[in-house]
Amino acid sequence: MNEMLGLYPQWYVPGIGTAWVMGIIGTIHVLASHTSVGAAWLFALLATKSVAENKPEIMVYLKRYGMFLLVFSYIIGSVTGPGIWYSVTVASPRGISGLIHNFVWLWASEWVFFFVEVIGVYAMVYLIGKIDNKTYLKLAWSFAVASWATMILIVPILSFMMWPGNDRWYHTGSTFDAAFNLNYFAHLGIRTAFMFAVAGAVGGIIAATMKDRETRIEITRFLSKMGLAGMFLMIVMFMWYTATLPPNARLIMDTQMMPKYGSTLAALLIATLIYFGLTAWKPLQLRQGFAIAMTFAIGLFGLWPEERSRESMRKPYVAGQYIYSNQFFSRDVPGKGVISDMPLIAEKGVLATDYFIPAELRTITPENQLRAGELLTRVMCANCHSLEPDGALRPLPALLGHSDEPKMIKAYLDGALYHGMIPYMPKMPLPDDERAAMALYIASLSAPQPPVIAANPAKPIQQGVN
Ligand code: HEC
I need a labelling partner for 310 at 20 to 30 A (CA). Which of 47, 155, 317, 380 fits? Predict the structure, then answer.
C-alpha cells in the first residue's frame, strides 16, 4: 500500500464551485466547436450545390458565412479550448491525468486535424473564385472531413469519462478498449446530429441578410432542412445513447435530470422544430434577430442542461468509473497500475496522507478541529457541493436541511457515505475523528452565528506543502 495519497492542491471556487466554471467554459466551447464542424459540412454541401447547379450567388453567401465563422466559432472556440484545459487541470488534476494517460495520441491526432480545419476555413474563404471549381470542391470536402475527424477523435475521451463501456479496459488499459464501444458510437451520433442542427440555426444569421431574393430563399430552405434532419437524427441517437449508459447514470438521469431539465429540453425541441418548419415554409420571414435568438436558446436551454446533465450523470465519478469527482481512486485498475485509495484512507485518514495538508492539521486536536473539518470538507465534498448556504452547486447546507446539529450530520457521514451506499456519491471510509471534525464544520455552516473561520474567506486555507 502507498503511504501517501497522490492528491494535488484543491481549487476552491466559492458559490458556483469548480464544476460550474468548467461547465460555463465547456458550454460556450461546445456551441462554437460544433458550429464549426457542422458549418464545414454546410460549406461542402452548398459549394457542391453551387457548382452542380451553376449558382455562383451561393458562393457569395459562403464567403460571408466563412468570415462570420472565423470570428464567431473559430476565435471563440480557440479561446475556450485552452480555457477548458486550464480549468480542468486545476479543478480535476487526477481526472485530466487519467485521460492523458489513456488518450494522449488521440489528442495529438485530433490536434493535427484541428490544424487542417483552421487552415481549411481560411482557405475556403480566401480561395472562393480564385481557383477552379473542381479543386475548390476537393478542398471543401477535405475541410469537412478533417473537421468531423476532430469530433470523431475527441468523443472517445468524452465517452470514457462516462464509462469505458466494458470491463476489459480495466485489465488491458488499452486505448482502443477505453474508446470504441457502443456508448461512444451513440455519443458520436448525438453530436453529429447536433452539429447539423446548430449549423442550420447559425447559418440563418447570415442567410437572413442576403440581398438576392432567390438565393436567400434557397439557402434558408437548405438550412431548415439540414436543421430538421439534424433534430430528428438527434432524437433517435438520444434514445440509443440512453440505452448505452451505465446503471448509475441511468438512475441519475431518470430521478434527477429528467425532472429538472426534461421540460426545458422538450420545450426547446418543439421550439426548434417549429422554427425550422416555419423557416422552410416561409424563408423570407427569417430575420437575423430570430436566428441569433435561436442560437442563444440552443446554447442556454439545450447545451447547458445537456452538459450539466452529462456531468451530473457520471457521478460519483469524473472519469472511467474509477476516479471519483473528489479525485480519489475508487478501485484498482491493473491495466494502468492504479491502486484504490480506499484502503489507505480507511486505515490512516486523509489528514495524515494528503501532501497538501498544513503540518498543524495533521493531527486533530480540540483547537484545530473546526479548521481540520473545513479542509476535509473541501477535499471530500466541495468538488460536487457548494459549501455556502446559497451556493449554486447542490449547496451542502441546504441538502442537509440547514441542520446545525453535528450529531445528525455525523450520523449521515457514518452511514451511507462511509459505506458507499449512495450511487451518486463516493464512498468515504474516513476514520471516526475526521468524520467528527467534518460534521462539526458542516454544522457550523448553518449555525446562526457565522463561524470565526468563515469570517475571513479571503485567507487561503492551504498554505502549501509542509
Ligand atoms: C461525486 C460528487 C459528490 C461528492 C464528492 C459528494 N456528493 Fe453529496 N451529492 C452528490 C449528488 C450528485 C447528490 C444529489 C444532489 C441533488 O439532489 O441535486 C448529492 C446529494 C447529497 C445530499 C442530499 C441527500 C442525498 O443523499 O441525496 C447530501 C446530504 C450530501 N450529498 C452530502 C455530501 C457530503 C457531506 C459530502 C462530502 C463528505 C458529499 N455529499 C460529497 C454528489 C456528491
Answer: 380
- C-alpha to C-alpha distances, 50 to 35, 80, 212, 214, 263, nearest whole angstrom: 21, 33, 15, 13, 40
Is-contact 47 62, C-beta < 8 A? yes
Residues 318 and 361 in one domain: no
For ligand 1, atom 20, the nearest C-alpha belongs to 399
- Give the structural domain span for 133: 17-324
Query: Cα(373) to centroid of ligand 1, in Å?
Result: 17
- Give the whole-angstrom CA distance, residue 184 versus residue 190: 10
Question: Using one digit for the tens of pLDDT, what is the confidence trace for 257-292?
Answer: 888 888 999 999 999 999 999 999 999 999 999 999
Residue 305 shares a structural domain with residue 238: yes
Domain assignment present for residue 7? The answer is: no
The domain total for the chain is 2
For position 126, which CATH number holds? 1.20.1630
pLDDT in tens, 9-55: 999 999 999 999 999 999 999 889 999 999 999 999 999 999 999 99
For the chain, what is the mean pLDDT?
Answer: 92
Atom 32 (ligand 1): residue with closest C-alpha?
A: 396
CB-CB neighbours of 265 under 10 Å: 18
* Same domain for 179 and 44: yes
Ligand 1 atom 26, closest CA: 422
* Residue 76, pLDDT above cutoff 50: yes
The finding on whether 421 has its CB within 6 A of some atom of ligand 1 is: no
463 has a pLDDT exceeding 70: no
Statement to judge: residues 109 and 140 lie in one domain: yes
Strands 317-319 and 323-324: antiparallel
Question: What confidence score (pLDDT) does residue 362 get?
Answer: 95
